[in-house]
């Protein structure tokens, strides 16, 4: 009998930094976007989501074929290691998404395409969806054409002398591709009889630009290129077919114009939008400063059409009905806008960096607090909506906790300060400057803040554990304990606030007396301890760390009781339910597991994160588990009934009784 599969209730996350990756499906009922190493397929009407899992690294590009049958996605990998492009069956993905199946990668994967080293920079489907072109990253910089049905590489060529960033097929032909990048723009012709690629450089005159994105008009006459400089270049892409080397080229692609207006922080997304009443082609432009605007057919800015979004615009997708625009930003926000840009609706906002910590307020399963780069956010669990965002620019929040009465949100930051905020408004309550000489890496609350003074225990990257008295008028340090030689990764306080245990990167855990402020006991292991907790009866302690193991320790003398295998990678986080019968773990192998404490057996396993799990917590009402990941993803898991977990443990062990 295997462990149960944890069911995903909902997911919050979006890889907004990937250029051009947020797209409408050709039918307009689905959207596709990246989340770490997953490709997410979402039904717009029912809000159901499914994940195409199969990539071993972060997804770097996504394209949907024009016939709506296939999705192609590429990934980034380590330098010198081949990066895959994967073809997915989109029709099957939609069917499985509607049937509420979550992980659908095995069912929908058609084939892997292995050619490029380090990264697949961009890809695109031909007009009839029979061919796929893939573009390698900076270390590879090759353009390869594939046959979609057979997965055969037909031909390839170095894309340009310098790095190439984007590629796209023309609309009316299956043998012509346009590529652009660092000081290059080329129109390619494919000779399928050989097969061979033939490039013709666009004549740019004295203009030198880094082209970051491009789009082609419906009549295939012009390409509009968004540049790092912030202007849009218009290129005539008509060229000769392949001729004999002795015959001169009579028609060459040429630059024919450049916008006078320059967008701040560069142009990262461009889309051709045809005005059906006049027949003119306007250019929808997304800029690095969050501006979305139109350029008319004369390359002049339309000042009456403008929207300002939070974060640099990385994706623009026009709905099939051409009434709505889907936009994604590098701050991981998703917007839906009307075609005239007068109506802008924020559809999703997520963390744009790794989420370092997550916590529930005491006795409140409906709210959860997450901390990440630049901000702390409070979420409504039931509707998956952000309620409050507390921003501290240019800093990173490494740990957070809510006081027992809910009156204070305590947080530790990488500038060495402890900051407290009012959870209702996000206003600053107090700051402890120079709480640690380096980062504040761990926090724990002792005593209840219903009575003043109350105490905070903090740990820093320099290895010190400090206790602070908090009153309504001031904050003062009670004691500084220096025995660790590495960063403090976790702090836990027992129920009556008389003891505290600290887990450190130096391979030691120390139990401290919070009345006399001396060491009670310590234990050591050749590992980097990442997390620790007291069993609810305080007879034992459980640790996890970089040795992939879970270790049980006696709370009295600090002796090891037993060690079990936790996973296939670093174990990062632990949390225990109030009775101490089950606990949950998160690890770098992207798995969330529920364990039976006494038997040391995994009763349930959840796979949903695309990267490492940074922190896990069980909700106060035991109805769900929340886990946060390295790609800014938040996953809410359905917590199985305890009797169901007990029965599964009995079946795994082949007998016994846990009821």
Characterization of the model:
With 659 residues, the chain is mainly beta. It is built from three helices and 56 strands. The strands form 13 sheets. Strands 31-32-33-34-35-36-37 form a seven-stranded antiparallel β-sheet, with no helix packed on it. Strands 1-53-52-51-50 form a five-stranded mixed β-sheet. The longest helix has 12 residues, at 642-653. It is elongated.
Keywords summarizing the entry:
659 residues; elongated; mainly beta; five-stranded mixed sheet; seven-stranded antiparallel sheet; 3 helices
Structure summary:
By secondary structure, this protein is mainly beta. Strand 19 (211-216) and strand 20 form a beta hairpin.
The description of the largest β-sheet is:
7 strands, antiparallel
**Basic shape:** elongated
Strand content: over 45%
Q: Low-confidence segments, ≥5 residues, pLDDT <50?
A: none
Oligomer kind: single chain
Strand order of the largest sheet: 31-32-33-34-35-36-37
Terminal-residue CA separation: 18 Å
Topology:
Elements: E1 4-5, E2 7-12, E3 23-24, E4 30-35, E5 38-43, E6 49-53, E7 59-64, E8 70-75, E9 82-89, H1 90-98, H2 105-108, E10 109-117, E11 120-125, E12 131-136, E13 142-147, E14 153-158, E15 164-169, E16 176-181, E17 184-191, E18 196-201, E19 211-216, E20 222-227, E21 232-236, E22 254-258, E23 267-274, E24 281-287, E25 291-295, E26 301-308, E27 313-318, E28 324-329, E29 333-338, E30 344-349, E31 357-359, E32 367-371, E33 373-380, E34 385-402, E35 409-413, E36 418-421, E37 428-432, E38 440-446, E39 454-460, E40 464-470, E41 475-482, E42 488-493, E43 499-504, E44 508-513, E45 518-524, E46 529-534, E47 540-545, E48 549-554, E49 560-565, E50 571-576, E51 582-587, E52 591-596, E53 601-607, E54 613-618, E55 624-629, E56 634-638, H3 642-653
Parallel strand pairs: 1-53
Antiparallel strand pairs: 2-56, 3-4, 4-5, 5-6, 7-8, 8-9, 9-10, 11-12, 12-13, 13-14, 15-16, 16-17, 17-18, 19-20, 20-21, 21-22, 23-24, 24-25, 25-26, 27-28, 28-29, 29-30, 31-32, 32-33, 33-34, 34-35, 35-36, 36-37, 38-39, 39-40, 40-41, 42-43, 43-44, 44-45, 46-47, 47-48, 48-49, 50-51, 51-52, 52-53, ...
